[in-house]
Specification:
This protein is an alpha/beta fold. It folds into two domains: 132 residues, Glycogen Phosphorylase B (Rossmann fold); 183 residues, 3-Layer(aba) Sandwich (Rossmann fold). 33% of the residues lie in helices and 14% in strands. It is built from 13 helices and eleven strands. The strands form two sheets. Strands 8-7-6-9-10-11 form a six-stranded parallel beta sheet, sandwiched between helices. A five-stranded parallel beta sheet has the order 3-2-1-4-5, sandwiched between helices. It is globular. Pfam families: Glyco_transf_9. InterPro entries: Glyco_trans_9, LPS_LOS_Heptosyltrfase. Keywords: Glycosyltransferase, Transferase.
Length: 332
Amino acid sequence: MKFLVIRFSSIGDIVLATPAIRCLKKRYPDAELHFLTKKKMKAVTEANPYIDKFHYFDKDFKGMATALKAEQFDYVIDLHKNLRTLRLRFWIRAKWYSYRKLSLQKFLLTKFHWDVMAKEHITTRSLNTLLPLDVSDDGLGLDYFIPDREKVDLRTLPEFLHQGYGAVVIGASYYTKKLPPEKLTELIDRLNYPVMLMGGPEDTLIGDQIISNTKNKKAWNSCGKFSLNGSADLVRQADWVISHDTGLQYIACAFQKRVMAIWGGTSPKLAVEPYYGAKASATARSYRNYIVPNLPCQPCSNFGLKACPKKHFNCMRLQNIEAIVRDALQGF
């Protein structure tokens, strides 16, 4: 038996789909499980032991589709469900299962603020896609696997991080998902604890500015210094994680970290809040969402925007930094 699981992007969404991959492989251990994603997302799953073969999309749709057709899959599990996977369906002759994407419900929530979303997490919907195959949730939560070659030795980092640190993820894919630099600086100032700033190369400059302006002399900017898997390993070794709505938030959940999740233009109402699994310990399965209350414009989008549509950006500018700091340092 041969399965193909599809999830093209993004980092967080792929991580949120990992329970479906694991549970499918555990239910059919002798089957071949293939995974299709974008080439630029390769690092997210390259060390996943539940995947037998990888396929990557990088511009050449026809070439990809031809190669997939030749595999002669028995079943395709579509956890992306977009026009590209619809086109693939006409190429690959197999039994096809697609997850409930809830596009209309998300549109109504973000454009008219009518909340008719099914109260079902995206990970649960991915798992439910497998019910016709007699696959059930094992309750173990999200997976993230780091190649040994990309693990980070803390002894190579500043000494003040060696005995423990908190991770503050300053990056995100869109402007409306990120605290403004001055709010991030206030956050780092108030954290009387060793702190590592985390993000991609595009966040390096803002990270350097925060380090230059903060009063916290035990803060270090890791943005742009590590690969995705290197950053994931630093999240794995952190004491706790403060994060915007971005991939490292869900990677933190995969490592059962306590998460302070900050929401701006997006919202956990979109069924994407931190996820741990039913069998996680009560201590590990701990997170808190931070949302400015009583904002009629929030959420304003499903993925984030390049600018605040209302110009005020109150969903981030009015965040209660004191509460986030208190919960990070004292727990909840």
